[in-house]
Structure formats: C-alpha cells, structure tokens
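Good day; I would like, with your permission, to put a structural problem before you. What I wish to show you is a protein chain and, alongside it, a tokenised description of its three-dimensional fold. I would ask you to consider whether the tokens describe a fold that such a sequence might reasonably adopt. You will find the record immediately after this paragraph:
***
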Amino acid sequence: MSELIAENIYYLGPDGSNAHNAMLNFLGVCHADVKNKISCRSIKSALDELKNDENSLCVLPIENSIEGIVRETIDNLLKLKDKQIKIQGEMSLPINHLLLSTGSDKSQIRQIISHPQALAQCANHLYNLFPDVELKEVSSTSYAAYKVSKENNPQMAAIANEACSKLFNLNVLENNLNDEPDNKTRFYILGRNFEVATLKCEHLHIDDEREFRTDASPVSEGKASARRSQASDYPERKEISRQSAAKCETGLDNNSDISLCKTAIVLSTKNKSGALCDVLKIFQKHDINLTYIDSRPSKKCLGEYLFFMELDVYDVKSKVEPALEEVKQYTDFLRILGTFKIY
C-alpha cells in the first residue's frame, strides 16, 4: 500500500542532483504513488511550486554533516504561511563529490563551478589542488555538470556526483573531493498532511495558530510556473532509474523501528534574560532529547531570532504534547513543522 500519493513531486534539479537521488529513494522507501517528477531551478522555486499545488510533494536538502544547515531551505521553510504543509519524512544520503570535465587534464582547469554547499564541502581540497582556479557558484551540482557538458570547455570543471558524470558524459578528474569522507546530507519530504500508513507516531494537536511576522507574499501561479525547469536552460530530461539511484548507499535498514520519528518546531522566545534556557529546561524535565537546534535571523529586527528545533519522538501524547503546551508560555510564537518518520 502506498504511504504517499500525489500528482507531482518537486525537487532541486536538474536530474542527477543529490536532491533528485533523494527523491527517487524517498519514492522507493515510502512506496509513493506519484505521477510527475518535476525538477526546479532553486530551493525557493520548489517550495513555491508546492505552495501552489495542493496535491504535491517536495524534496529538499536541510542539513549537511560538514557545512550544517542549508540556509535557503530553512529560511524559505520558516516563511511558509500554509500551515497544512508539513514535513512528511526525513532521509540521509552519503555525498561523494567528483571533479568532472569534458577535458582529461586537470592542470588545464581554470574555473570550477558548483552549488555553494558543494564548494564549501570541498574547500580544503580545492585550496590545495587548485589554489589559483576561479570558483563559481551555480544553482545545483547537476546544473554545474550540465553547464560544463554544454560549454565543452576543457578549462572548465564541475563538482558533482557519479550519476552526473554518466548522465552528461563527463570525465572524472578527481574522486572523493569532499574534505571529510563521511559526508552526508539530510533531506526532507514535504506535503500537506498526507496519511502515512506505517507511521506509528501520532500527530500533535497543539494550538499553534500564532502567525509569523514575515514579508513573504503569495506567489502567483504564473510566476511559480515560470520558475520550473525550462528546456532553454536546463538539459533534456533523462530518467535515471531507481536502481541507478540506489547505488548510493542510503544506510537504510528495512527492518528498522518504524516508530523512530522526530517533531520539528520553530519558535521565538520572549526578549528577556534566560528565555531560551527556560524553554530548554522544559524539554529536559519531560526527558525529550533535542537532536538539532539552530537560530536564524527573524529578518525583521537586528538581534531578533527564530529557533529551529528537532525533537526525538517516542511518546507524543504523554511527553511531547504536554511539553509544547508548557513551552508556549515562554514564546512569542510557536509552530509545529511536522511529526515525521526517519527513513
């Protein structure tokens, strides 16, 4: 039985990106029934599509083991006004960066392009191997590979994965380019309150009606559609099989405890001494482990922050729900971003 059913699923493309591989893996482990897989030019455009498409899902990177939080994802996620959109699941994938080019001599390389996270994850190796080479940011690793293939310039290289080397017929000039060998990225799958058949976590029922203060405005259907991949500047779509994507070791155990879940929240504390400490003490009192905490600027006032947190969930009703009811007393606002399964 399908856990997730949707008309469309959006992801940061083009095909061959790590988000594309994560999307294929999600579809497999969730037994999802999705008609259309649609690549988007940016993280923001993928979320814009999700906002304007009620019967859809979206896969985005949230955190890397080397570079930490993916700022574009979390900032745009926190701006969402549609509170029906929730995190439906999480998956981690190993990330192995390669240096790809149409040429075969790495001494000729004068420019290396990739996504900002990929460039940062390979910063030390790039400094040592290519100290005088220009580094340029583009929207995704797979778009970098596509651009290098299209321009066919032996002085240009991309940082991308093995799937891209095959998809765009590029030479591998360097393997294992990331600075840390155990390089992984976490991905979220988002949607509107889909019923996940095997998810043993109960959904939270906290009153989280207080709205964020944000300048985010609705995106019209026309503008959102314009942000999808266009044939003029994205490669011709080629389907990579799930078997090919599965070559990336996911670290998933089919026999893993399906009650392994998280709850993600975002909150703003009152502007007084010890306010955040008061919140953390409540989680300690209820024996709730915080697996992640980060702060992001509110973008309204210098020195005002939003706190993004992920909580281990083993007992929603008797632990998490009462804890969040207490937490509300110490916050200016609180929003639950989802209670979801870890795949």
Summary: Residues 5-94+183-245 form a domain with the D-Maltodextrin-Binding Protein; domain 2 fold (CATH 3.40.190.10). Residues 82 and 89 are 18 Å apart (CA to CA).
